[in-house]
Design a protein that fits this description.
Blueprint lengths: L6 E7 L6 H6 L7 E6 L6 H6 L6 E5 L6 H15 L3 E4 L11 H9 L5 E5 L4 H5 L3 H18 L12 E4 H5 L12 H11 L4 E5 L13 H26 L4 H30 L5 H27 L8
Parallel strand pairs: 1-2, 1-4, 2-3, 5-7
Antiparallel strand pairs: 4-6, 5-6
Helix pairs in contact: 6-9, 10-11
Length: about 325
């Protein structure tokens, strides 16, 4: 990996004292800075880091545990201060192979992407070992993340192995990046508003039989309200505040039409059921046409939104 750019690796560290040295030893020599953020780890992490003689190593410490997102934001600010061109997040537990780092950096260094993210779902063996409930949870979570982030081509949304251009970081609103487990998803949402081109990097998980540190169904139920709120925020920002285009028109027309059709049809169905009198054809058609037209407009909105993904079709 040729390195004309400055690369900083950020490692959020919590309860990884027994594994952090092995991770640091595998980081390629082309990396200029290795920033470990000790998130008030209660184990012997601080002592272990003091014994490591890597000149690239910079250790930052939180006095209280604030979460992986907060640790990463501390690392981001330090990387920007050091003048890094590209930042890479690697976990300190050994579940992310530092040897894959060139694959994450190359698309950014060559100008093909602004943001790269790991994708374990290219590995069919990984998917086959998933219980069916977890597969369903991942599919549901992936769809909601696509909707809320605007990155319709992304897979494996909770994968924390990421790399991005520092200039992209500077265009993000750090206050809207979550401090804890919602971190990866909020990074995607903010990257979209910064119009960052995203590229998935195929990778295999390096742990044994464990396929995820999070319960996908639990994450889906806990994150759904926040993802819906993020979707509304993205749509308002992208199609009403930052820009106003044909998608905005379709939304303004499609949502009221669809809602009117549903309410109109439901009300007249209830009236017909209670009075035992058939609803007239004209009344039925008003509801049916409103629903169909509204649905078509919303479907076209999604199609145009997919085309508007940064980097898709040359955008």
């Amino acid at each position: 990996m040729s390195n004309p750019t400055s690369i900083a690796v950020i490692i959020p560290a919590y309860r990884v004292a027994t594994r952090i040295a092995g991770v640091l030893a595998k980081i390629p020599p082309e990396v200029r800075h290795v920033i470990v953020v000790d998130d008030a780890s209660p184990d012997s992490l601080e002592e272990v880091l003091k014994k490591i003689s890597d000149k690239r190593l910079i250790v930052l410490r939180h006095e209280a545990n604030r979460g992986v997102g907060a640790a990463m934001k501390t690392g981001f600010l330090k990387a920007i201060e050091l003048g890094a061109d590209i930042v890479v997040k690697i976990d300190g537990d050994g579940q992310m192979d530092p040897g894959l780092l060139p694959h994450f950096v190359e698309p950014i260094a060559s100008g093909k992407a602004d943001f790269t993210k790991g994708n374990r779902f290219r590995d069919l063996a990984f998917i086959k070992h998933m219980p069916i409930v977890r597969r369903i949870g991942n599919m549901g979570l992936s769809f909601l993340v696509k909707l809320s982030s605007g990155y319709w081509s992304l897979f494996d949304p909770c994968n924390g192995y990421i790399a991005l251009r520092t200039e992209t970081l500077k265009n993000m609103n750090f206050r809207r990046i979550a401090d804890r487990y919602f971190f990866e998803i909020t990074m995607l949402c903010e990257a979209y508003l910064a119009r960052a081109v995203l590229k998935d990097i195929p990778m295999k998980p390096v742990y044994g039989d464990e396929v995820s540190s999070l319960n996908s169904m639990k994450v889906l139920t806990e994150f759904s309200p926040r993802l819906i709120a993020r979707t509304v925020y993205r749509v308002l920002m992208s199609y009403f505040l930052i820009d106003f285009n044909v998608v905005s028109v379709f939304l303004v027309a499609g949502i009221p039409l669809f809602c009117f059709g549903v309410v109109w049809s439901a009300c007249h169905w209830i009236i017909s059921f209670q009075s035992h009198v058939f609803t007239s054809t004209g009344t039925v058609m008003i509801g049916a046409l409103s629903i169909l037209l509204g649905f078509q407009l919303l479907l076209q909105t999604i199609a145009l939104d997919i085309q508007n993904e940064p980097g898709r079709y040359g955008h």
